[in-house]
Amino acid sequence: MRHRSIIGASLAVVVSMTLSACGGDDGDGASTTVRVTLANHVWTDNIKKALPEFEKQSGLKVEVTQLGEDQLSDQYNVKLNAGSADIDVMMYRPLQEGRLFAKNKYLADLSTQVKANANWDFSDFQAGPVEATTYEGKPVGVPIITEQEVLYYRKDLLEKAGLDAPPKTLDELKAAAAKIKESEPDVAGFVARTGKSAAVTQFSSFLYSFGGDFVDANGKSAVASDAAKQAYAFYGGLIKDSGPANVSTDMSWPEAMAIFTQGKAAFYTEANSLYQNATDPAKSKVSDQVGFAPFPAGPAGSKPYNIPSWALGINESSENAANAWKFIEWATSKEQTLAQQKAGVPGARASVWENPEGTSTFPKDLAEAIAASTQAGVGHDRPLVVKVAESREIVGQPIVDAITGKDAAAAADAANTAFQKFLDDEAR
C-alpha cells in the first residue's frame, strides 16, 4: 500500500538466478528465461530464496529485477508505455495503478490461466483481493499480499475502565474512547490517521460499515449520501472529541502509530500489516498490553477493507506468457503462500488462514480479527479510479473538515460536486 517501512531503498538490484541451464529458446520459440520485476519487499526476499527450487522443477531460469517503489513506478512508466517485451511478470499495486494498467492494456487477461489447474485452485483466493485484481470482469492479476483494517487497543486501559472486552460496535468504541479520555487526562481515547489523503484508506472501513462507498452502483459519486455524511461526521468527531489534544490534521500511519506505541492512546484503527510496530518491545512502550479485535460494526455491520497491497500480473507485450504464468502459478501456490505467511506476509488464500500453521506466527487475537475481516471484507480502500492520488485529495477533505469542527455534511456536499466532476473528466 504505501508502507515505506517494508519497501526498501531506491537502488535497483538485479538478481539473476542461474541454477538451471542458460536460457535460450524452448521448442515453441518461447524463452526459457522468465524476466520478473519485483518491488523491494519481504515477499520478494522470501521468493528469491525459494527460486532454486522452482528453477530445478521447471527447467526455467528466472531473472529478477528488484526495485524500490519509486524506481518500480518509473520503470513501468517507461517500458509499459513503450510496449516493451522486456518484462514478463510484474509486481504491481492493484489499488494504486491497477486500474490505469488494465485500462491501458498493460496487463494480460488471465481468464484462461486461472482455470487451467484445479490443484492451484483460484477459488481459494479471498473475494476482496480477487475483486481488486479484476478489470471489466476479467482477472488481470493474482493477489500476493493482503491487508485488512483492525482495531488495536490497550488491554490495561480497558481493564482500568471496567471494560471486559474490546468494543464490538462503533457506538461502543465511541463510548469507550470517551470514557477513557475522561478518566485518563494524558491519554487519548482514540487515534487514527488525519491527513487528507493518508486517512482515506482507513476511513474507508467506517464508510462501508455505515453502508456507504465512494461511488454508487451507477458509477456516480456517493460521498454525499446519508451514509457517507454519517461516516465523515463519526470519524472526524471521534478524533475531535476523543483524540489527542491539539491533534494534527496531517498524520499518516507513522505519526498515529507513534502516539499509540508511546502509550498515549487507548484505541487505534489501522492496517494489520503494521502490527509489529505495536508488539515489538524495541518499538513500543506498551508492547505487552496491545490487543487486537475485528473492526467494530456500524449500522451496516462490520465491513473493513480486505485488499491486496501487491499482486502479480503478466505484461500484455510479453512474448513469454506461458512461462511467465508458470512462475506466477508457483509463486502463488498454496505451498508458497503458506511459507510466506509463516514469515509474516499475510496472504490472499483462504485455506492458509484456516490452517493453524498459517497463523502460528501471528498473535492469536490478531489472527482471529483478520479471519473475521476476510468474511465481509470490501475489496478496495480508496476510489477505484485511474488518478488515485487526485481522487484521495478530494474525498479526504471532509475528513479534515470534520476533525476541525466544520460542518461535515456541507463538506461532503462540496466534495461530492468536485468528485463527480473528477469522475466525469476521467470518463471522457
From TrEMBL:
<dbReference type="InterPro" id="IPR006059">
    <property type="entry name" value="SBP"/>
</dbReference>
<feature type="signal peptide">
    <location>
        <begin position="1"/>
        <end position="21"/>
    </location>
</feature>
<dbReference type="Pfam" id="PF01547">
    <property type="entry name" value="SBP_bac_1"/>
</dbReference>
<keyword id="KW-0732">Signal</keyword>
<protein>
    <submittedName>
        <fullName>ABC transporter substrate-binding protein</fullName>
    </submittedName>
</protein>
<dbReference type="InterPro" id="IPR050490">
    <property type="entry name" value="Bact_solute-bd_prot1"/>
</dbReference>
